[in-house]
Specification:
The protein is of the alpha/beta class. It has 13 helices and eleven strands. Helix 5 crosses helix 6 and helix 11 runs parallel beside helix 13 (335-351). It is globular. Bound molecules: pyridoxal-5'-phosphate. Residues 80-82, 107, 151, 155, 180, 182, 207, 209, 215, 220 line the site of pyridoxal-5'-phosphate.
């Protein structure tokens, strides 16, 4: 069955009359604004912070549109990609009835968001090589499966999923396929953005939190058909990205070259860190990474984790995660931080009591 957006959307969302904000009802420019119950006197900060921001963040979207070569109508901005994740559940999954598929080990918010929305989660584990198990996926899909969540490059494993596998799912599943590309800028693989026109059921998530270095601003992006973006916009809170975040994002988006330099350095450091860690007897394996972190299999992850924490370095202990037994997820730091980390691990091997 081909993808049918109308049928995939929850009936209450189809019928929803969205909130119409003051900034949407009047779009021109006026000299007196008495329509939104703002503080007419101003703000303790810069004057214009007394005014509500653009609900659809058009200026920011225009810059993203130019950088990503995608029309503004195909862009949704959320308060982090985490907001986009939640909105996708609310748009397409009927609580207590529908289900989604996640492929662990993967980013935890897909499951948390499902739980918050009372949507069942079917887990189809990645294979031991961290690639998709297509047969198990096919078996898991049922008539109530609305979204398949894919993360590529995947967190916490760091690898990209095989493109033909993703294409197979996009071509054969009649629900929504989300590809979370939070780490795409660090990857050898291409984004799926150029393929958006081919797949009406595709939603791509990206974020300014990783390569762009703007995690504090909380700006996540979803790219999809105009229809899907329209539905997401109807559900989001009217002013979901603050004026301050929009202004700072506008400034930052002029610095593509600087961001590319950071990406280059981080990718180089990822290679150096990987080589250095492999020299250590406590390190058993480093999984290939297309992201700004390494999944490192160690002899004794929890002891290592504690030792590093006691010495002021915090990494992520993933030992309790399926297929990641005895693994630490280590973000690539600055060159100096990476040297310190390696020294601390050398020190652990020399001094930590058994
Ligand atoms: C795969 C993945 N997706 C999304 C996010 C959340 O991004 P944001 O900061 O845009 O909410 C993260 C954060 O770690 C992530 O690892």
């Amino acid at each position: 069955m081909p993808f049918d957006l109308e049928a995939t959307t929850r009936p209450n969302i189809r019928k929803l009359i969205p909130y119409s904000s003051a900034r949407e009802e009047f779009k021109g420019s006026a000299s007196i604004y008495l329509d939104a119950n703002e503080n007419s006197l101003g703000s303790p900060l810069t004057k214009w912070y007394n005014r509500y921001p653009d609900p659809l963040q058009m200026a920011v979207k225009e810059k993203i549109s130019a950088i990503k070569a995608i029309p503004v109508q195909n862009i949704f901005l959320g308060n982090g990609s985490d907001e986009a994740i939640d909105i996708l559940f609310r748009a397409f999954c009927e609580p207590g009835m529908d289900n989604v598929i996640v492929c662990p080990p993967t980013y935890g918010m897909y499951e948390v968001s499902a739980n918050i929305n009372n949507v069942a989660v079917k887990k189809v584990s990645l294979r031991p090589d961290f690639q998709l198990d297509l047969e198990a996926l096919e078996e898991a899909i049922d008539l109530n499966t609305r979204i398949i969540w894919l993360c590529s490059p995947n967190n916490p494993t760091g690898n990209s999923l095989h493109r033909p596998d993703i294409e197979m799912i996009l071509n054969n599943f009649d629900g929504i396929v989300v590809i979370d590309e939070a780490y795409i800028n660090f990857s050898r693989q291409r984004s799926f953005i150029p393929e958006l026109n081919e797949y009406p059921n595709l939603v791509i998530l990206q974020t300014l939190s990783k390569a762009w270095g703007l995690a504090a601003l909380r700006i996540g992006m979803a790219f999809a058909s105009e229809g899907i973006i329209g539905i997401m916009n109807r559900i989001k809170p009217p002013y979901n990205i603050s004026q301050a975040a929009q202004e700072l994002a506008l400034q930052a988006l002029d610095h593509v070259d600087e961001v590319n330099d950071m990406i280059r350095i981080l990718v180089e450091e990822r290679g150096k860190l990987s080589t250095a860690l492999l020299q250590l007897p406590v390190v058993l394996k480093i999984y290939p990474s297309d992201a700004n972190f390494l999944l490192v299999k160690t002899r004794e992850a929890s002891r290592l984790y504690n030792y590093l924490a006691e010495n002021g370095t915090v990494v992520r202990n993933r030992s309790n995660v399926t297929l990641c037994e005895d693994c630490l997820r280590i973000t690539v730091g600055t060159p100096a931080e990476n040297i310190t980390l390696v020294k601390q691990l050398e020190e652990f091997a020399r001094t930590a009591p058994r």
